[in-house]
Design goal:
13 helices; MetI-like fold; 0% strand; mainly alpha
């Protein structure tokens, strides 16, 4: 039989051709305990198109059902939360009618609005500092060599894996006993920046691994100073990693609860702290409305980002 011929009813090539051992039919027959050659009736029945088609359909049905259950587990509670944010019932146990009164009550709730403003202010400052420190740190670790560089890099990554309770307690001791700083916006921004900027640094470092070292040299050969070469050549190349790290820092800071418990003051309560305090008292329909607004804003931002990305793609 010439090389490249196929077995009847089978899409696997002749094992006599120069193909890897694991692609030959004998490998699968020996593995499954089947005896015979490619021309035997047992082999033809085992690899018949009908049986293969049934197996593929069963596989697709299994993985499709599993994917459906995973998506239902993830998104069904979110969908129910959005639906019940329009429920007129205060208990939110059963549906009693469509109403938008909880959104109106949310817009007049000064406590939640103030907490959201505090969270937004802290997240913006945290994002700015984390992006700046992470980008500079990643560039210095990539560009320069100095003693104990690996030890310093390891110390930078520790906040990413340290339990948040330990970090919150250690920062509280640092602020109160050693630095004598009053708990407030300053301590919140410092503590959030401590665990956010390593995420920016990791992303920028990964981007720097693919950087062509001759780009900076070419820019300097054309008359650019080291600072101008970094600003005009290196920084645009790093911009995707910087933006993704900034978005990650903003999300982590806006959503942070455990560290904020230990480092916040009475006048700097963030939104997660207020939401948790309201949830401990009982089910409040305003929380459903607040969550629905955040979900809608996230979906809108994701759609805009996807649309812009498609427009930039040639």
């Amino acid at each position: 039989m010439p090389n490249g011929d196929r077995f009847p009813g089978c899409s696997i090539r002749n094992p006599s051709s120069k193909t890897p051992r694991w692609t030959s039919p004998e490998f699968f027959w020996k593995r499954d305990g089947m005896i015979g050659s490619a021309s035997s009736p047992g082999a033809r029945s085992a690899f018949s198109p009908g049986r293969v088609l049934r197996l593929l359909r069963l596989q697709n049905f299994f993985f499709g059902g599993w994917s459906l259950m995973v998506f239902a587990f993830l998104y069904l509670p979110i969908a129910l939360l959005v639906v019940f944010s329009f429920n007129s019932s205060k208990l939110n146990i059963r549906w009693e009618g469509f109403s938008t009164k909880w959104y109106e009550a949310l817009l007049t709730n000064k406590v939640l609005i103030t907490a959201f403003e505090n969270s937004l202010l802290v997240a913006l400052f945290t994002t700015l500092l984390s992006t700046l420190l992470g980008t500079i740190g990643a560039w210095m670790l990539h560009r320069y060599r100095f003693p104990y560089q690996r030890a310093l890099a390891l110390l930078i990554f520790i906040p990413m894996v340290m339990p948040e309770v330990l970090m919150g307690v250690s920062l509280l001791v640092l602020f109160v006993q050693f630095l004598n700083l009053p708990l407030g916006f300053t301590t919140l921004v410092i503590s959030h920046t401590t665990f956010c900027f390593p995420f920016v640094l990791v992303g920028v470092q990964a981007r720097l691994q693919g950087l062509d070292p001759f780009l900076e040299e070419a820019a300097m050969d054309l008359g650019a100073t080291p600072l101008k070469a970094f600003w005009k050549v290196i920084l645009p190349y790093l911009m995707p990693a910087i933006v993704s790290g900034a978005l990650m820092s903003f999300t982590l800071s806006l959503d942070e609860y455990i560290v904020s418990v230990f480092t916040t003051g009475a006048q700097s309560q963030t939104l997660p702290l207020k939401v948790y305090g309201m949830a401990k008292v009982g089910l409040n329909p305003q929380l459903n409305a607040l969550s629905a607004i955040f979900i809608a804003a996230t979906v809108v931002v994701a759609i805009i980002s996807h649309t812009l990305a498609r427009r930039k793609t040639p």
